[in-house]
Amino acid sequence: MEIKANIAGKGLAQIEIQQGRISSVRPVDDRRAETDGRAYDNRARSRGAQATLYEGPNLSGRSYALNDTMQNLGTTGFNDRASSLRVESGYWIFCTDAEFRGECRTFGPGDYPSLPGMYNAISSGRRISNDYPYAGRPNWQPDAYHQSQNSQNPR
User: I need a surface site. Which of 21, 78, 96, 126 has the fewest CB within 10 A?
Assistant: First the structure.
C-alpha cells in the first residue's frame, strides 16, 4: 500500500507500507495531492517567501524557500543544488560561493526555469531591494559597455 502524507511540515512524502511496516519514504513534488481525504497544496510552504530555489529544472523537485539573507546554503543541505528559481517579490542576488562571493547575479520577480551559468552552483543569496536596485534601465544591446566607455573617454 502507498500513501502520501505531509511530514511534519517538511513537505509531501510518499510512504510505502508492506506487511504493516513502513518499507520506504521518499519526497515527492506533487503540487497538489490527497492526504487523509484533505487536499494539500505543496506551494503553501513558500507562499510567505520572496524567493524559492528548486532542485530540478522548470521549478520542479525539492525546494528551499528564502525570506531573508542566507550566507551559506551549506548548512541547509541545498548548497550547489538549485537548477531553477522563482522570485515572488523584491530583487535578490545569488552567488556561487558562500558569504556572497564568487560569481553573483541579480534576479527580479518572475520564474527562472533554468539558471545558465549558475546551474547547481548557488551557495548564498539575499534580498537586496524591493525595487529595481540599479540606476537607469539596463541596456542589453551587444557591446553596450564598450560603446558607453568610448563615449565617456573620447580619444
Answer: 21
pLDDT of 2 reads: 54
CATH 2.60.20.10 fits 48-134, yes or no: yes
Cell of 126: 539575499
Domain boundaries, the chain: 1-42, 48-134
Q: What's the grid cell of residue 141?
A: 544591446
Grouping H, G, I as helix, E, B as strand and the rest as coil, residue 143 is coil
The least confident of 10-24, 89-103, 127-141 is 10-24
Confidence of residue 61 (pLDDT cuts 50, 70, 90): very high
Cell numbers 497538489: residue = 32
